[in-house]
Specification:
With 439 residues, the chain is mostly helical. The protein has a two-stranded antiparallel sheet with strand order 1-2. The radius of gyration is 21 Å and the shape is globular.
């Protein structure tokens, strides 16, 4: 009964109206910025390699939040259930996600505040400092939605995945293993989050590049091993995007499109307003230069990592038969890594999940500070760490559904603010002392 309710809620939130809303905002911003995600694509791909600033650390923190278990388990299950066409629509969604992410970050840096030598920014500050006071309720709606979402997307889903991985490796009572893993995660999370932001940045800067390169390498190993079938896999992706295979009973083209867009947005979090809280601490002076990192983030997270996951999943010729996320991923990689599959995949999933926990906890601190000040920030960290302990107790399918629904709800105030503040994305000298979008 509960799972049915969650599925219906998720289908309602991510139904046709939300899909049209997000694509509509993406189109509006694309036109407003004169297709900036295309014009400045090369600059965006080079943006992480600038020196003498903390931009790379901000990018790694943001990627740590977006590249959670959704990139591996979520995409694998989506391809298993809805076919290769999901990959096509995930990539298409990234075109709109790039410009939405760019605009979120641009406004966050443009309208951020500086207190005690620290920068504070995000959708709530963009609304507060960019719109009339009558729109202030949007700031609080966003923060409330985000705080709830952070305990799902950035906490329960990730800790559940970590516990499942460790339980597969250790031959002990699953309840006690999960409990110990929960306590360890909570302790590490507390040590990193409780205090200055530079601890979060330092952690992300070391772990995110390592886990990303490692995962790309193992996916390429599988894909190269199946290179003779690659042209058929690519053909299947394009064909099933518009004509789902009849073997998948009851799946319509719209269902595949909706699943691709929701999975893509779930993965890169464009429109949710999360990543700008990290980029707002960038020491780059130009909002444009900082926002270019968002285009790179979406490309890396969605076009590269999610696509590689999906293509790798399609190499299973008989189709993925496993029902649980971890088992499905193991089924994909076992023919190539044999007895090493479990430790390799488990290690990467644990890294993906834990970096996501840290990044979302860091964002939650920002939202809690905006609403409740220093005391609220400290209480949030304590609560966030305690909830980690109980993450393994929930049903995985229910958690995925709850997270997708929360993400959709959280996007509404953020996307609304992007529409209302769209004029600030064009050059107006009185709006900023920074360099704006170069022509």
């Amino acid at each position: 009964m509960f799972n049915r309710f969650i599925n219906e809620l998720c289908n309602t939130v991510w139904g046709l109206p939300m899909l049209v809303f997000m694509v509509g905002v993406g189109l509006l911003l694309t036109v407003k910025t004169k297709f900036l995600q295309i014009r400045r694509f090369k600059s965006a791909m080079l943006s992480p390699f600038s020196k003498n600033n903390n931009a790379f650390a901000c990018l790694c923190t943001a990627l740590g939040g977006t590249m959670g278990t959704g990139n591996i388990i979520g995409v694998t299950l989506a391809v298993s259930a809805f076919g290769g066409g999901v990959i096509f629509w995930i990539v298409v969604s990234s075109f709109f996600s790039m410009i939405i992410k760019y605009c979120e970050i641009y406004l966050a840096v443009l309208l951020r505040e500086k207190k005690n030598e620290k920068f504070y920014g995000g959708a709530m500050y963009s609304i507060k400092n960019g719109l009339d006071k009558s729109f202030m309720p949007l700031s609080y709606i966003f923060c409330i939605c985000f705080l709830f979402a952070s305990f799902g997307t950035g906490n329960l889903v990730q800790s559940k995945s970590i516990c499942e991985c460790v339980s597969e490796i250790l031959p002990f009572n699953r309840f006690y293993v999960n409990l110990v893993v929960g306590f360890v995660c909570a302790l590490l999370c507390f040590l990193i989050l409780f205090g200055k932001a530079n601890k979060t940045f330092a952690f992300a800067e070391k772990c995110v590049p390592l886990m990303t390169v490692s995962y790309i390498a193992i996916c390429l190993t599988v894909i190269i091993s199946n290179s003779v079938y690659l042209k058929y896999i690519i053909k299947d992706i394009f064909v099933s995007a518009f004509k789902p295979p009849s073997a998948i009973y009851g799946v319509s083209t719209f269902t595949v499109i909706k699943k691709g867009f929701s999975r893509g947005m779930f993965s890169n979090e464009a429109g949710l307003g999360t990543a700008p809280m990290s980029y707002s601490e960038s020491t780059l002076k130009s909002p444009h230069d900082t926002a270019l990192l968002g285009i790179f983030e979406v490309f890396c997270d969605t076009v590269i990592v999610c696509s590689l996951t999906g293509i790798t999943a399609l190499t299973v010729k008989e189709g993925i038969t496993a029902s649980s996320g971890i088992d499905a991923v193991k089924q994909v990689f076992y023919p190539y890594f044999k007895i090493f599959t479990l430790p390799i995949i488990s290690s990467i999933i644990i890294l993906f999940a834990f970096t996501s926990i840290i990044s979302w906890g860091f964002y939650g601190k920002k939202a809690a500070f905006f609403m409740f000040g220093n005391t609220g920030e400290k209480l949030y960290v304590l609560t966030f760490c305690i909830v980690l302990i109980f993450g393994s107790m929930l049903d995985t399918s229910a958690v995925w559904g709850i997270c997708e629904a929360l993400n959709g709800i959280m996007a509404i105030p953020n996307l609304t603010s992007l529409i209302l503040l769209r004029e600030k994305l064009l050059y107006k000298k009185e709006n900023t002392c920074y360099n704006n979008i170069p022509e």
